[in-house]
Recover the amino acids of this structure.
């Protein structure tokens, strides 16, 4: 069936037909939008000849509605709303088990990436040992997995920061598949009128070594800030490992 000729006047088109959008003389987009409004239809594409005759109608639907019923729905919708009678043999139906919008897929991908890379700080414990020494134990979480690591130090601020960083590295080594980590150093720095803890972590893979660095703004607990600086330094490298 040939669609209405766009060269006709408004009176010739008839009272039941709306004007065509600019750049869409045969009203294809309007017809496609109509079909995508049908229940279970995910997308639709209509192919017309240069004279406006409908040559092909392609419809993608979710599984559940029989293809023959979809064809009847398409025929009825085009005839009732647009006055177009289309031969059922020109309508093809493809079905899929599940199709999610691009936005949903993007959000799912982001959540999955975050789940794989997110190492959460769980806690930090201090335990006195002989003399003026302490044992620091760091707890981390990756998904449902809990990681712990410990390191000893003298009981002073700089030594405790370094030990906290070492304990974090020990905990991270539980999920590493290759290579080793070693704390190169931890120190306080000032920038932009604020104080930060900067951690350097050496990664050794075979004969190759590289230095990873991370920072965390200095909070009430310098030791906690040191652990977070280590996580900031190793975050992307751990993603590649996992």
């Amino acid at each position: 069936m040939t669609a209405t000729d766009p060269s006709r006047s408004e009176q010739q088109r008839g009272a039941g037909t709306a004007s065509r959008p600019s750049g869409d003389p045969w009203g294809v987009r309007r017809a496609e939008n109509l079909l995508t409004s049908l229940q279970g239809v995910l997308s639709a594409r209509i192919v017309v000849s240069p004279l406006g005759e409908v040559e092909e109608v392609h419809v993608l639907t979710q599984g559940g509605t029989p293809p023959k019923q979809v064809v009847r729905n398409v025929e009825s919708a085009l005839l009732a709303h647009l006055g177009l009678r289309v031969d059922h043999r020109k309508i093809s139906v493809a079905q899929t088990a599940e199709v999610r919008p691009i936005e949903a897929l993007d959000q799912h991908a982001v959540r999955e990436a975050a789940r794989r890379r997110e190492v959460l700080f769980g806690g930090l414990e201090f335990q006195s040992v002989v003399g003026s020494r302490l044992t620091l134990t760091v707890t981390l979480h990756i998904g449902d997995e809990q990681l712990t690591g410990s390191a000893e130090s003298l009981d002073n601020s700089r030594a405790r920061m370094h030990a906290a960083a070492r304990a974090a590295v020990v905990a991270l080594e539980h999920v590493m598949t290759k290579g080793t980590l070693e704390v190169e150093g931890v120190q306080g720095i000032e920038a932009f009128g604020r104080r930060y803890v900067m951690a350097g972590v050496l990664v050794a893979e075979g004969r190759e070594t590289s230095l990873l660095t991370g920072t965390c703004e200095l909070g009430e607990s310098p030791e906690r800030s040191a652990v977070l600086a280590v996580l900031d330094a190793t975050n992307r490298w751990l993603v590649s490992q996992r």
User: Anything to note?
Assistant: The first strand starts at residue 41 and ends at 48. DSSP finds six helices and nine strands in the chain.
